[in-house]
Backbone:
């Protein structure tokens, strides 16, 4: 096994061990998406104002609420990096024989692990609420893989922000300013076609739209016509963010 | 000879123009315990961060075991151990897990991993706490775990930035006992930063005193202390109107460097107070001088530090004119 994969796996293992010791964050972070699915969905759905292509509104927003939750976790993953910068952990990691690419990608994908666990908490709740998922194991597996990979991309974005915003306060500010626009300028709660023209353009540049669309088509609608476009967009997003975040990573300890 | 660390003209100017290092020339022989002693903000951490390949110098060269820290950074990182000043372990997993993650990052094969981890835990006295969350550890235990992480790969050189900062005396002692044992067993070089004079004095073979980005003095702790000009014997005498002929004789034999008399107090500067005391007492008795009290004051690294970094004294060996200043400093220190 080469050094790169070894380090990425070590970073993922670190995250899994952390989760094993303390799962509170997973549960508390699940509260919000569950509210979207169990409260907001049924109430808004009863109005029948949003064209969802024939599926119940709650089913329609379930992938949106799920991706919102996993994306937010990833966007705030940089806080861990800021904390590790304030302590000496990052200095020590950068003095170890590990490339910055392996550290950044490893840490970013570690956030993907958190996202998977998050999904595994939210999906059963959605089932209880009565959301009808596509009964397909390959679809589900691919959807989880997409959640894992896209969370990695968002976490890399977050690590990149952490490289510039070196204090918790500044980071929190940027994080907050980023999450809600990302959510509202996406197809998480309503189709992009309902938005004003300018918003539609933003939504098309928003990686979250492609993630929601992919997961929605795999888990709920089964209509896979746009899947290849979604996958291409997500892979492109990941690669670009991984590279930029890695190039800037050394900046964080300077 | 290949030095463990060698730098020439090493200079670091941070953005904004702060000159943290100013043309530092340093040589550390392999197998030595080397201390960089200086106040906060002297440039110690900057120097260590350059040596551990974290930041690049503005100018000058730095080598660790013959490898340039800028050009061969990746190779240097293979064989150095480093403990930063700040806490550098994950507190939400156990001590064992911290070592396991680092063992994997360092590519230690899985067949050897477990034994190595338990060995360093044993070496650092953490075996029975291995599976506790680090959050429950004391400050001293955290430091020892950090050292354990650094020792996992049996580094050729161990860089420690303020290794005992914030620890109580017994925890400091425990950390050092383990480090010294490791160094003996593996003949490793230890390079540490500190602002504790006693720590440098006790554990270092060589010390470089750094102040405002420059090395102002270096040598063994003994040499540095001797460079102050000697030890001082203070005598309280009964009858000050005595004949100093006997002392003049001693002076010629190099036992005494100088004598100052003021009233009933007599200060004698000598190379080695303990061995010259009997001869001095004999000479005084011959001159019928009654001695009521004797005290010996030895210069400490504190005095050395004040001399070279504090800018209170001129450089060069302390002459008799400076004895009073040295003494007043010693009292204050």
Residues:
């Amino acid at each position: 096994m080469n050094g790169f994969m070894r380090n990425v796996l070590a970073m993922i293992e670190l995250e899994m061990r952390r989760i094993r010791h303390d799962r509170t964050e997973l549960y508390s972070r699940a509260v919000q998406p569950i509210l979207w699915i169990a409260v907001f969905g049924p109430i808004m759905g009863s109005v029948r104002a949003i064209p969802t292509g024939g599926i119940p509104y709650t089913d329609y927003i379930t992938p949106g609420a799920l991706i919102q939750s996993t994306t937010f976790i990833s966007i705030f993953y940089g806080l861990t990096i800021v904390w590790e910068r304030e302590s000496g952990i990052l200095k020590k990691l950068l003095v170890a024989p590990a490339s910055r690419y392996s550290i950044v990608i490893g840490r970013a994908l570690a956030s993907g692990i958190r996202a998977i666990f998050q999904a595994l908490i939210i999906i059963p709740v959605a089932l209880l609420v009565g959301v009808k998922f596509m009964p397909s194991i390959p679809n589900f597996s691919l959807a989880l893989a997409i959640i894992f990979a896209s969370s990695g991309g968002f976490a890399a974005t977050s690590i990149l922000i952490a490289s510039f915003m070196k204090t918790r306060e500044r980071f929190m500010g940027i994080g907050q300013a980023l999450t809600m626009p990302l959510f509202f300028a996406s197809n998480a709660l309503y189709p992009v076609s309902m938005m004003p023209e300018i918003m539609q353009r933003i939504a098309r540049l928003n990686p979250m739209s492609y993630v929601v669309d992919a997961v929605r088509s795999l888990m709920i609608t089964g209509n896979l016509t746009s899947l290849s476009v979604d996958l291409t967009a997500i892979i492109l997003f990941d690669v670009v963010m991984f590279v930029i975040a890695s190039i800037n990573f050394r900046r964080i300890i300077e | 000879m290949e030095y463990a660390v060698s730098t020439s003209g090493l200079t670091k100017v941070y953005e904004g123009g702060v000159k943290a290092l100013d043309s530092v020339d340093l040589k550390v022989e392999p197998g030595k315990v080397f201390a960089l002693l200086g106040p906060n903000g002297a440039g110690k951490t900057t120097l260590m961060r350059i040596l551990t390949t974290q930041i690049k110098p503005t100018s000058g060269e730095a080598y660790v075991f013959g490898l340039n820290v800028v050009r061969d950074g990746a190779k240097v990182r293979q064989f150095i151990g480093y403990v930063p000043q700040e806490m550098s372990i994950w507190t939400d997993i156990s001590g064992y897990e911290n070592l396991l993650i680092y063992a994997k990052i360092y590519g230690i094969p899985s067949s050897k991993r477990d034994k190595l981890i338990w060995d360093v835990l044993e070496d650092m006295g953490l075996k029975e706490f291995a599976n506790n969350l680090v959050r429950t550890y004391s400050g001293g235990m955290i430091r020892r775990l950090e050292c354990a992480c650094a020792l996992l790969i049996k580094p050729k050189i161990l860089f420690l930035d303020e290794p005992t900062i914030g620890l109580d005396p017994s925890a400091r002692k425990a950390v050092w006992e383990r480090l010294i044992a490791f160094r003996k067993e593996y003949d490793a070089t230890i390079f540490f930063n500190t602002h504790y004079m006693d720590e440098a004095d006790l554990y270092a073979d060589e010390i470089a005193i750094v102040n405002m980005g420059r090395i102002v003095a270096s040598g063994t702790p003994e040499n540095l202390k001797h460079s102050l000009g000697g030890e001082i014997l203070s005598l309280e005498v009964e009858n000050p109107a005595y004949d100093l002929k006997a002392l003049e004789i001693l002076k010629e034999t190099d036992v005494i460097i100088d004598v100052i008399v003021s009233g009933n107090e007599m200060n004698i500067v000598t190379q080695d107070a303990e061995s010259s005391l009997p001869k001095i007492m004999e000479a005084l008795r011959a001159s019928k001088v009654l001695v009521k009290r004797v005290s010996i004051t030895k210069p400490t690294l504190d005095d050395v530090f004040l001399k070279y970094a504090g800018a209170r004294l001129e450089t060069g060996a302390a002459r008799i004119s400076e004895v009073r200043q040295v003494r007043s400093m010693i009292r204050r220190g």
In short: Residues 311-333 of chain B have pLDDT under 50 and may be disordered.
